[in-house]
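We now fix the convention by which a protein and its fold are recorded. Here is one such record, which you should read through line by line:

>
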Amino acid sequence: PKGHLSLAAVKKAATWGTAVAAGAGDGLEVLSVDDSPSVELIKRDTIAGQPLDYQGYAGNQVFSGMIKAPLRYEVCERLDALVLGTAGVPATVDISAKQHSLRIKPDLAGIFATVALWEKSGSAERVREYSTAKLHSLTHTLKVGGLAEGEWAFAAHVMAQNTAAGTNNNTTFASVTLPGNRDIAIFRHLKVRVNATSAAALADSDKLLYVDEVMIKLERQIKADHFTTQFGDKISEPQETGKVKVSGRISFSQLIDGTGGSYQSFLDTLSKISNKMDITMTGDTLAGSATQYFQRLWQLPSVQFSGAYKPIGQAGIAPWAVDFEAW
């Protein structure tokens, strides 16, 4: 298939194992959709008077993958909501900008989506359809001089290759379009603020300087190989097996003291002091309003720096990074 001609779509589904048709506004501008379709092999490891095994049998069907995309305003928030669990209804702010607050839901039961990818290879066209997929982790990254990117991992019920038939097929995909608001956060607008949990509200004076990369990851602990008699060789809806984990890394171009410097993060790593943090990723375009730009804001009320890295192995300024965990 010709990757540059592919089109991905994601749409929230209602019943595990039953696909829904993607349509207008459900298209997703992706960097890649990496999937690992597999059918496990049941071996016939028997003794029958010959040196080789007999041919095996088809076992469980295992489908997992990763969606990578620029962290754009519309549709990507749908992917985030499928991982966090609580989306709410966007509220109008300023004149016409929409504020969408996503929060962590204790349990993701009943929250999943259909993931589909239209592919073209020569004159052949097909839709690779994952009927229902549980998105269980997300990662947001923004590097110096670049655009914000997101990654979302999923475990799926089953994959179908559809042409003329199937819920998502060549005919239905003709109606899939990308949303109109696709502004993206860029590095020059990145802002990271940190102060002690017991201190006053975060202000611009708490902004970290010399940051050249930030990464934040949220993971759901799930049982992806949830095979039962419900679907035989296909997984039932994955269930959570542990707590939600939020972690990340802030990288600095240099280790420096003073206001906005990175040295304090080193001291906080040693003391394990409790901090609060917010990470703001902003685009260039106003959200149809007077003052509100397209923006993504992570609010982390309780953070601890868990590790620090200061490699010195060459001439020049030594880079610096700290890992954190959020509660």
User: Anything to note?
Assistant: The longest strand covers residues 124-143. The first helix runs from residue 76 to 84. The helical segments are 76-84, 263-271.
